[in-house]
Amino acid sequence: MSGRIARAFTRAAREGRAALVVFVEAGDPSLEVTRRLLPALAEAGADVIELGVPFSDPIADGPAIQRASERALVAGTSLSGVLDLVARARYDGLDVPVVLFGYANPVLAMGEAAFASRAAEAGVDGALVTDLPPEEGQAFASTLRATRLDPVFLLAPTSPPRRVKIVGRLSRGFVYVVSRPGVTGVRADVPEGLAALVERVKEGVGRLPVAVGFGISTPDQVAAVARIADGVVVGSAVVLALEGAVAAGEDPVVAAAALVRRLAAATGR
User: Nearest 5°: phi and psi at 68?
Assistant: First the structure.
């Protein structure tokens, strides 16, 4: 574990806090806005950026990210365009880890080996394919690792011990724990039993950092999760901040960065 993602989690732990993982949809409302957004998120306190690759059937996502994906597709965003965006961001000096978050169809359309090669060349650090079960992910994980990309897999409250161990064996960088059954989206509270779930996952995956997402949207929720997990993932709240700013005729980058600053300030333990 010597990659950029691992170093981000290690740095956060040394500073006595959880790593903040921020999700945004590439191309929402345009790739140009996303290009400005990435360094702004890093400056605001995002330790890792999950960059969504828009897809027409985002089955794991709630209404906010579904709308973002639709807007990005209407704007002409493609997987190739997202990879080009990351390459430009790296050229401009972006140093924060970037994990591509998406679905299997665009990756398969490009070809797994071609995707891994192009992503590595662009400066991507890892990939999470939400609809790829870990039991079927060995070959893809090996393809990613061959290009020094970190495969990241999901675990849910319903994941049995066998799946937890498989994910611990295949994942690099961190393991993403879904806080509750269902899709992404803003929620009013942190689910009961989350601490026990995180502890169970940590026992099963060994030394890999564990990040918790789905439904984490406020500073208070970030603070609660930061006390039990190595990382906190916030997505829908940031996407909604972007959406609201565009609707109000304001700069979405400024709005999203302001929210991320408040969330980052809550990650201490």
Answer: -65, -40
- Give the number of domains in the chain: 1
Domain, as residue range, for 188:
4-151+182-197+214-264
Tokens representing 45 are: 């306190």
Radius of gyration of the chain from its Cα atoms, rounded to whole angstroms: 17
Are 150 and 172 spatial neighbours (Cβ–Cβ below 8 Å)? yes
61 is catalytic: yes
Cα–Cα distance measured from residue 83 to residue 122, given in angstroms and rounded to the nearest whole number: 6
Q: What is the CATH number of the domain that holds 91?
A: 3.20.20.70
Q: Residue 260 and residue 268: Cα distance in Å, rounded?
A: 14
Q: What is the pLDDT of residues 79-119, one digit of tens each?
A: 999 999 999 999 999 999 999 999 999 999 999 999 999 99
Task: Give residue-wise pLDDT tens across range 178-201.
Answer: 986 544 545 556 767 899 999 999
Catalytic residue among 61, 150, 230, 243: 61
Using the predicted structure, report yes or no on whether residue 226 has a pLDDT greater than 80. yes
Cα dihedral sign, 204-207-179-154: negative
Catalytic-labelled residue, pool 47, 50, 230, 243: 50
